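Input sequence (249 aa), recorded before submission:
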Amino acid sequence: MSLFLILLGIIFSCNFAKADDTIVPDLAITVEAHKNFEVYIAPVNLVNTSDSITNTIPKDTIFRYAAVHYPNMKIDNGHGGYERFNVNHKGKFLLYNQDTINYAWKNCDYKVDHKACAFQNNHWVLETNVTITNEQIVVHMILYDERLQAIGTATVTNTHKIKYIERQKTTQTQENSIVSISQQQQNCNSQNGSCPVVPGGSFTGPMQTGTTTITEDLPPEKIEFPVRLLEKHFSQASLRLWTGVRIDL
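Predicted structure, token format:
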């Protein structure tokens, strides 16, 4: 009986040790979280009320610049500051446009309501609005997060300008004049030694020319610089947008 109790005590001690090892770990494990970002680049919304400006925007313009500029956004570095996205972040950054979004998300029609689809599928969306008038062109970008909260905006404008240049007209006239020269002669008296001056005749001298200058103010010259939608406007707006984004993880 005593041998049985001894064996039972040994088995109980081993099971207790195993249970104790399972409950209290010997090492602390650090888990590094990675977050992937997905962004849908919506087609450009163009409003043109100008009667003289016609512009065609290539459909891949915003997509191309987003692919170049997104690494400029800043992300929480975990030490109270921010760093560029591509420095230490291990997550992926995925960009989709109207041609590629259905390969990733087939459960929603992005052509009908891309915001509703982005909210449903929990990803970002980038909208670009272009307004063209005779006086100004405005390129405005808004980046929404998965909750449709604006996390980045950028605006670039091109305004119609007018410059006036002052003008003057200068006129010069020449006038000719003839100078008459009088002659005088002296008649000296040999007896008293006086030499009175006696007016003599006159003769025509050389012709002289005089110049008169007249300056007149003319109406100013008007130079107009019409508005133009250029590729650089999209590039500038995209760079400003992504550079200003700050992400807290």
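Checked by second reader. Residues 16-34 have pLDDT under 50 and may be disordered.
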